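Re-run with default settings, no changes from the original entry. Doing this only to confirm the output is reproducible before filing.
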Amino acid sequence: CIRDRYQRRVHGALGGLSNVVDKSGSETSVSDLESNEVVGLYFSAHWCPPCRGYTPQLATIYEEVKGAGKPFEVVFVSLDRDESSFSEYHGSMPWLAVPYGESARQELATKYGVQSIPTLVLLDGSGNVITTDGQAAVAGGSAAFPFK
């Protein structure tokens, strides 16, 4: 079935994860991301000053794009050193996250060649990489969607 093939692509693109979490800790199935034309993987950490500077900018862009009704989601992939830092930092974000305890966090960083943070990797609806320089791609806001 097409839905099953898509879910396998999304699961593969997200390191085989089954669920992501919102800032309250509630789980959302990765398959629920299928309704989005673009999914951003935001590699960041609380201890990183450039990340803390970029996160509010990305949140503004995210809210603008979502407010315009565009099918866009961001998933925070934390490179924090402890769960309390992850929770505090994720609490300032309006999007989903890979659960802190998941080994997929580091696997995703390796898979997408993350060398420094912040890094925003944009995937299309099939789980293919649009760009690994998502910061530049999303700078145009909703007018630039789907950031290709």
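The chain is about 35% helix and 20% strand. The radius of gyration is 14 Å.
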